[in-house]
């Protein structure tokens, strides 16, 4: 309490430059300390980060503390996911109750200033993300960003290959550093929200790059000088691997639980189970994060279930979040049934174009592949297509 009082007094005095990082609730608590009014002239400038994830009700809390002639900056991306609400807003009031970014843009007419440099991802990934509606001037700062391995990805089953997984020589094509955008398309027809084949594919890819993935991406430019950052030696250590190297994104918690269990079983003794759990998450919770390699597992194949969830599964913003988390490699595992589904609702059909474009057009080179998964002592074979981006 003493530190908070000192901070507030320092802000009110206005003699020093003070930077405060806080959640909306913490800002409110600072202003109302000792039963003070929530309306306080504490800040000359308020920057709301991820303003498309913060709704208007939460944004009001820090805005109560802006000085009379202060400024407000909202940084966000309306092409990503909005905050989650338990109920839909009344018709016509969406902008009033939704993201604070949209509220200021649509209700108050505040202009937008597009940041055109992407410092996260390789050029190929940024080029695809432009399909979501970003301008042609949107570009990558490090266009040649690429994963590196300390050892080659094997094309024959290694001696230490886990007995519970089915090896495929086609893993090597998926993990080829030159292929930054990859999708694996296969026929399913039955899976609903969890999928053992895709879970085992994730586990196999994780096993192959764990201990091999270099801790420094190739061709990364310094954000100020533009000079390539010198390569650090060695592969990711176990903890950093799950925190920075590999992320697994899925629409459903059932698939999240299945993938997490497979990885924790596979990497028992080789990684912190909690860090593995944090590396596997739903799209909403992964928004704002990044990894060198992102694997997206859609998990579903049952046409009836897909039809029931098509607005959710084919959301343009949801797939944009998935794809834009990747720094140097994006791998999408998806059934042909999801790709082929045609929604009856016109708006959902329009939204589905981003996923369909990635699979059918952007990943424009296709190679037959054979994979498998094991259950109860039986190996189930899966024929698939590995599709990669081969340029225009």
What report would you give on this structure?
The chain is of the alpha/beta class and 392 residues long. 35% of the residues lie in helices and 18% in strands. It has helices at residues 2-13, 24-31, 56-63, 94-97, 100-107, 123-129, 171-174, 196-209, 238-245, 253-266, 273-279, 283-286, 303-308, 310-313, 316-324, 336-340, 346-351, 353-362, and strands at residues 43-48, 66-74, 117-118, 139-140, 181-186, 246-250, 280-282, 291-297, 326-335, 365-375, 378-388. A seven-stranded mixed sheet has the order 7-6-8-9-5-11-10, with helices on both faces. Helix 2 (24-31) runs parallel beside helix 3 (56-63) and helix 8 crosses helix 10 (253-266). The protein is globular, with a radius of gyration of 23 Å.
Quick structural summary:
The protein is an alpha/beta fold and about 400 residues long. It has helices at about 1-15, 25-30, 55-65, 95, 100-105, 125-130, 170-175, 195-210, 240-245, 255-265, 275-280, 285, 305-310, 310-315, 315-325, 335-340, 345-350, 355-360; strands spanning about 45-50, 65-75, 115-120, 140, 180-185, 245-250, 280, 290-295, 325-335, 365-375, 380-390. The longest helix is centred in the middle third of the chain and has 14 residues, at about 195-210.
Question: Main traits of this protein?
Answer:
two-stranded parallel sheet; alpha/beta; seven-stranded mixed sheet; 392 residues
What percentage of residues falls in helices of 4 or more residues?
25-40%
Q: Distance N terminus to C terminus?
A: 60 Å
Per DSSP, the total helix count is 18
Strand order of the largest sheet: 7-6-8-9-5-11-10
How much strand? 15-25%
Alpha carbon gyration radius: 23 Å
The tally of strands reads 11
Principal-axis shape: globular
């Amino acid at each position: 309490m003493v530190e908070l009082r000192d901070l507030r007094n320092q802000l009110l005095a206005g003699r020093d430059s003070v930077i405060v990082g806080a959640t909306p609730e913490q800002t409110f608590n600072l202003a109302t300390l000792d039963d003070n009014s929530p309306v306080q002239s504490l800040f000359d400038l308020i920057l709301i980060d991820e303003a498309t994830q913060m709704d208007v009700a939460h944004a009001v809390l820090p805005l109560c503390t802006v000085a009379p002639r202060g400024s407000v900056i909202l940084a966000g991306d309306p092409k990503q996911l909005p905050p989650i609400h338990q109920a839909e807003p009344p018709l016509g009031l969406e902008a009033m109750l939704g993201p604070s970014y949209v509220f200021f843009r649509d209700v108050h007419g505040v202009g937008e200033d597009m940041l055109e440099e992407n410092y996260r991802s390789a050029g190929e990934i940024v080029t695809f993300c432009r399909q979501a509606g970003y301008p042609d001037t949107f570009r990558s700062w490090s266009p040649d960003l690429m994963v590196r391995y300390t050892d080659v990805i094997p094309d024959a089953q290694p001696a230490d290959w886990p007995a519970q997984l089915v090896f495929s020589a086609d893993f090597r094509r998926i993990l080829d550093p030159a292929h930054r955008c990859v999708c694996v398309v296969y026929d399913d027809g039955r899976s609903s929200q969890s999928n053992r084949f895709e879970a085992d594919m994730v586990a196999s890819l994780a096993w192959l790059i764990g201990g091999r993935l270099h801790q420094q991406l190739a061709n990364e430019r310094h954000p100020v000088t533009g000079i390539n950052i010198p390569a650090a030696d060695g592969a990711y250590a176990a903890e950093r691997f799950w925190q920075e190297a590999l992320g697994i994104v899925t629409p459903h918690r059932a698939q999240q639980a299945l993938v997490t269990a497979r990885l924790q079983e596979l990497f028992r003794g080789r990684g912190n189970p909690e860090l593995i759990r944090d590396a596997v998450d739903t799209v909403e919770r992964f928004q704002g994060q990044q990894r060198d390699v992102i694997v997206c597992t859609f998990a579903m194949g049952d046409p009836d279930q897909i039809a029931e969830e098509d607005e959710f599964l084919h959301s343009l913003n949801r797939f944009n979040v998935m794809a834009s988390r990747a720094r140097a490699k994006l791998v999408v595992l998806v059934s042909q049934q999801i790709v082929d589904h045609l929604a009856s609702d016109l708006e959902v059909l329009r939204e589905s174009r981003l996923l369909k474009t990635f699979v059918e057009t952007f990943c424009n080179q296709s190679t037959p592949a054979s994979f498998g998964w094991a259950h109860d002592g039986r190996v189930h074979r899966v024929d698939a297509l590995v599709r990669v981006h081969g340029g225009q």
